[in-house]
Structure formats: structure tokens, C-alpha cells
Write a structure and sequence with these properties.
Mean pLDDT: 89
Number of helices: 9
Distance between the termini: 31 Å
Low-confidence stretches: none
Strand order of the largest sheet: 5-4-3-8-7-6
Order of helices and strands: HHHEEHHEEEHHHEEEH
Strand content: 15-25%
CATH topology of the largest domain: Beta-Lactamase
Helix content: 40-55%
CATH superfamily of the largest domain: GAF domain
Shape: globular
Structural class: alpha+beta
CATH class of the largest domain: Alpha Beta
CATH architecture of the largest domain: 2-Layer Sandwich
Largest sheet: 6 strands, antiparallel
Radius of gyration: 20 Å
Number of domains: 2
Length: 255
């Protein structure tokens, strides 16, 4: 195998694991998702089964499921990731300043994944919880990521958008206009769009000044996190996001 074909095979394998992590798939379904012949998908799945990364389910459609080995690998990466370790102290400071739940989220396929969660003063923590996937079109951190990640945004907007509450924006055109407004003002706002009792504010983490690698979010009960206070909360979130961005840029310069 040449180095070029080896790199292509490695990339295809990682993409297959991403697709299987989103939902179990049969060999034909995986082949369709990867854009390869079904024989290629079957060979890849056979290798992943041998390595212990996937197992064949018992349903008649012969779908393959990822195993906990992937979770173990991902957990080690997250715990030691530069982004996670840099963000955690800034989120704790933000929580101490505002008293609300604070999060750091990244894009994950069609969702937003919470890498860091710091609980606020409320009796019940607000979502997203640590390692939880939440929809990106109706959460503050998700919308901040969509607004500052153009390629990913278009991939998300090509999919059907689920309504979680009566306030959820599900029309791609409406959401694009909302994301334009978010970029113009510099932060995202969530107003009972995912949870009827929760509001949230988020700011992008952009170490290169352009595309977001993550988003800093603040969520709280809707009766406490008031609409008229969102600008002040956004200022604090933007400050934390800027500090994280600066730290990531400095680390990049040193490597």
C-alpha cells in the first residue's frame, strides 16, 4: 500500500467511525455515507470488528454499532486536550462572576458537544451536561458555532431541523438570517428554544480571528436569566472566550 492510499484509508476509517457514532449502519448504508462500493465498506467493517471498535447488531438489517472502546479513546483525548485544560479555569471564573451554569462546546457532526461544564448556583444544572450532545440550531453554543463555522453550517442546514419547543427555528432561511444577526452583534442568544424553562448566551472561541473552534455558553432558568440582561452576560462570555482564544493562539505559536 502506498503512503497516499494509506492516508486515504485512514481517513475513510475515521469517517466511518464518525458515521457509526451518529447511528448504527449496515454495510450498504455505510457505503452510501462514505461514497464507496459496498465491498469496500464490508472490508472496512470486518477490520473494525476484528479491532474491537464495532460489533454487528442482531437486527435483520445487519447494522453495525460502535463499542465502548471508542468512548474510552475519546474520553482520554478530551481530558487531556489543550482546549479543555485552557478553558476550565476561565469557565470557573465566569461561573463565579455570573452564578449560572457555564459550558464549553464544540461541533460534533450535526450537534454541539459539551466538553466542559461548570455548575452554577441553581439547584438543578442546566443542559448541556458534560459530554452531552445537544442540537446546534436551538442552543446558544450551537448557534454560535453555526454562525462562525460556514462549511459546517451549510452541512447542518441541509438536514431536517427538529422543533423542540414552539420557539425553535426550523426553517433554514429563517435560521440563516438569525445567524447573520448573531455574527453582527458578536454573540448568540437562546430563548426557550431547546428547553421551555431555559435561556442562554454564547460567544465563539476564535484563536485565528475567523472560524470558531468552540463556544463559551452561559445558561440559566428563564425566570432568572432575563432577556434585558443578555448583553451584560454576553460581555462576560465574550471576555472568557477571548481569553481562551488568546491562550490557544499562544500555544500554537510555541509549537
Amino acid at each position: 500500500m502506498s503512503s497516499g492510499s494509506g492516508i486515504a484509508h485512514a481517513g475513510r476509517t475515521l469517517r466511518a467511525l464518525e458515521l457509526l457514532a451518529v447511528e448504527p449502519r449496515s454495510a450498504p448504508e455505510l457505503a452510501d455515507g462514505l461514497g464507496v462500493h459496498v465491498r469496500t465498506a464490508r472490508r472496512l467493517l470486518k477490520q473494525l470488528v476484528c479491532e474491537g471498535y464495532v460489533v454487528l447488531g442482531g437486527d435483520r438489517r445487519r447494522r453495525y454499532h460502535p463499542t465502548m472502546r471508542i468512548v474510552a479513546v475519546a474520553g482520554q483525548v478530551v481530558d487531556r486536550a489543550q482546549l479543555t485544560t485552557l478553558a476550565a479555569p476561565h469557565l470557573r471564573t465566569l461561573r463565579d462572576q455570573l452564578g449560572e451554569d457555564c459550558h464549553l462546546c464544540v461541533s460534533s457532526y450535526l450537534s454541539a458537544l459539551c466538553l466542559v461544564h461548570v455548575s452554577g448556583n441553581g439547584p438543578v444544572p442546566c443542559r448541556p451536561q458534560l459530554r452531552e450532545l445537544v442540537p446546534c440550531h436551538c442552543t446558544a453554543t450551537g448557534k454560535a458555532l453555526l454562525a462562525w463555522r460556514e462549511g459546517w453550517r451549510e452541512a447542518v442546514l441541509e438536514q431536517p431541523l427538529r422543533a423542540f419547543t414552539e420557539r425553535t427555528i426550523t426553517g433554514p432561511g429563517w435560521l440563516r438570517r438569525e445567524l447573520d444577526r448573531i455574527r453582527a452583534r458578536g454573540y448568540a442568544f437562546e430563548d426557550r428554544e431547546f428547553d421551555t424553562e431555559v435561556r442562554g448566551v454564547a460567544a465563539p472561541v476564535c484563536p485565528d480571528g475567523a472560524e470558531a473552534v468552540a463556544a463559551v455558553g452561559v445558561t440559566g432558568p428563564a425566570d432568572r436569566l432575563l432577556v434585558e440582561e443578555r448583553a451584560a452576560i454576553a460581555d462576560a462570555a465574550e471576555c472568557a472566550a477571548s481569553e481562551i482564544s488568546r491562550g490557544l493562539a499562544e500555544c500554537s505559536e510555541l509549537t
